[in-house]
Every structure is written in C-alpha cells, then in structure tokens.
Amino acid sequence: MERIKWEEYFMAQSQLLALRSTCERLSVGATIVKDNRIIAGGYNGSVAGEVHCIDEGCLIEDGHCIRTIHAEMNALLQCAKQGVSSAGATIYVTHFPCLNCTKSIIQAGITTIYYAEDYHNHHYAIQLLEQEGIEYKKIPFNQQHVAQYLLNN
C-alpha cells in the first residue's frame, strides 16, 4: 500500500488535535505547516487555567460560546508565543474557519487553507480569501483510508 499523501497526513494531525477539544458544541483542530513541517497546532478550548465547557457547560452569548478560543487562533497564538513566523505557511483545519479566524489567518500571512468540512462558510470570509489570493480548498478527511493504512502497516 502506498503512503498517505501529505494533505492526508496533516489533516489527520488536525483530526487528532480536535480530539483534545473541550468544546461541547464542535470539536475543531488546526495544524500550521511550513515546508512540510508542522510549526504549530491548536484545538478549540478555554483559556489556559480556565474552566472547560465539557466540565461546566458552554458560556453562550448571542448564540456563540464566549469561553472558547478557536483552534485556528490557538495555533496562530502558539506561533506568536514561540516566535515562529507563519508567513507563507499552510493551515489544515477540520472545519472551514469562521470570519474572525479567516481575518486572523490572512493577517498572519498564511497563504493556503485546507479544510475537511464546511461549517457556516461566511460569504465575507470567502470574499476576503479570494480578494487576497489565499487558496482555500476542501479536502475531505478519509478516516477509513488512514485506518486501513495503519492496519496494513
């Protein structure tokens, strides 16, 4: 059996990160990659040291959980905290980024977004990505393909 593709490998990393999510509503993972090397990863969850939604429930205002930091933002903040440039990088996300994460991704200099599932794809986010020439592409995650590969090797 042939090796999994880079896209599958990095999306699998994002799927694993999503398993760390502390959000009750949606588990999301994000992996930032540069030159086929992972430079940061994140999942959606609470501020470090704060209570988690899985323990105390979501803190909802205007239909959104205000306790949760999105996976993409956590990955970008990890780059900032470690002093690693995300300029020219690619981000692999389990779900299409929200508008605010899309704006942050653009500002961070990321040039490509790969996502596995659509999720409230905001029309303005798409407009911004196209305006800025940011490639975005849905690459569905084939869990069975990865599992089959692992079983055979």
UniProtKB/TrEMBL annotation:
Residues 5-137 form the CMP/dCMP-type deaminase domain. SUPFAM superfamilies: Cytidine deaminase-like. GO terms for molecular function: dCMP deaminase activity; zinc ion binding. GO terms for cellular component: cytoplasm. It comes from the Bacteria. Its cofactor is Zn(2+). GO terms for biological process: pyrimidine nucleotide metabolic process. This is ComE operon protein 2.
